[in-house]
């Protein structure tokens, strides 16, 4: 495990077979793709993994595949969010048994966004998992609790095991600045979310890493490396080139990710379980045209697929 999380940490999707069951072989292929793309780590499960549609058995089996194929090459962040501290602790213990210490936790919306209940929830988890490094996921409403920077800072001061914050509120930039300007020493950094649609603003404010989807992980790695090397114009050129696809990804979510991974030869289908907008013929043509511009699919293949 690395001493610190940096760089590109894509959230892995959950591949499904045509019959709706999880595709374990494809999960291994996704991890291999990410490692070969040069990512710093992988995240599983998360919202982009359709985690709410997975059974506990599926979730555990897939996390083991991820750990077995990623650890030793890159870091692994295990999603451990759940409705109760007991469930989060159970997820954390399962991850620890696999050698994973980074846990990403979003507190349940049901407890609200006030400091006292959120702190009580996370304190119970931290006490039971003393070796875990917690990444506090702050997702925007209506999906998340939309915690204020002040609440996050108070949580980090009270619970030193909160090592990172994944800041996804909109706009995330001011929150990132506020947190980093006032963080305690125990808070190692802030990680950007939002599918890397705001990555340059996040990096410019001091974010240490980003957690996009996986479909263009190689381009995101190239952007990250250019930024860290001081080649800001190169990073911006890559960013601008990816934006048309990322705006579509914000709408079609896992379907776009899986469609792209099909065209990259990693997945066999774009099956999803989570409620997700359908990709009709016009949307598919738009997506494939974007992939062609990114060098992921040829214009000829895009035209052929759009006609199907």
Summarize the structure in words:
The relative contact order is 0.12. The protein has helices at 24-37, 56-70, 85-97, 115-128, 149-158, 172-182, 199-204, 217-228, 232-263, 281-293, 299-307, and strands at residues 7-8, 41-44, 75-79, 102-105, 133-138, 162-167, 189-192, 209-210. The chain has a single domain, classed as Alpha-Beta Barrel (TIM Barrel), CATH 3.20.20.70. The N and C termini lie far apart (45 Å). Helix 7 links the parallel strand 7 and strand 8. It has 308 residues and is of the alpha/beta class. The protein is globular and about 50 Å long. An eight-stranded parallel beta sheet has the order 1-8-7-6-5-4-3-2. It is built from eleven helices and eight strands.
Describe the biggest sheet? 8 strands, parallel
Beta-strand percentage? 5-15%
Query: Helix count?
Result: 11
List the uncertain runs: 298-304
What share of residues is helical? 40-55%
Gyration radius over CA: 19 Å
Instruction: Give the name of the CATH architecture.
Output: Alpha-Beta Barrel
Count up the domains.
1
> Quick check: average pLDDT?
95
CATH superfamily: Aldolase class I
> How far apart are the termini?
45 Å
């Amino acid at each position: 495990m690395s001493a610190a999380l940096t760089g590109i940490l894509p959230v892995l999707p959950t591949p499904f077979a045509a019959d709706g069951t999880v595709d374990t072989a494809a999960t291994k292929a996704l991890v291999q793709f990410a490692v070969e793309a040069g990512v710093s780590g992988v995240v599983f499960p998360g919202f982009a993994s359709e985690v709410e549609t997975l059974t506990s058995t599926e979730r555990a089996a897939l996390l083991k595949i991820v750990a077995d194929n990623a650890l030793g090459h890159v870091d692994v962040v295990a999603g451990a969010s759940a409705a109760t501290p007991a469930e989060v602790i159970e997820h954390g213990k399962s991850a620890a048994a696999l050698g994973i210490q980074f846990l990403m936790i979003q507190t349940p919306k049901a407890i609200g966004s006030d400091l006292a209940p959120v702190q009580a929830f996370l304190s119970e988890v931290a006490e039971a998992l003393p070796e875990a490094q917690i990444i506090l996921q702050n997702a925007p409403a209506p999906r998340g609790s939309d915690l204020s920077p002040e609440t996050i800072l108070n949580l980090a001061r009270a619970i030193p095991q909160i090592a990172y914050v994944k800041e996804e509120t909109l706009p995330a930039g001011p929150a990132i600045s506020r947190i980093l300007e006032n963080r305690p020493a125990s808070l190692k950094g802030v990680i950007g979310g939002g599918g890397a649609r705001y990555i340059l603003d996040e990096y410019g404010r001091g974010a240490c890493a980003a957690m996009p989807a996986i479909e263009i992980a190689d381009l995101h790695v190239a952007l990250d490396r250019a930024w860290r090397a001081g080649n800001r114009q190169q990073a911006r050129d890559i960013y601008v080139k990816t934006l048309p696809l990322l705006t579509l990804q914000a709408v079609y979510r896992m379907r776009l990710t899986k469609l792209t991974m099909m065209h990259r030869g990693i997945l066999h289908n774009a099956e999803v379980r989570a409620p997700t907008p359908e990709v009709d013929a016009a949307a598919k043509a738009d997506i494939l045209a974007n992939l062609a511009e990114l060098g992921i699919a040829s214009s000829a293949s895009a035209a052929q697929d759009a006609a199907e």
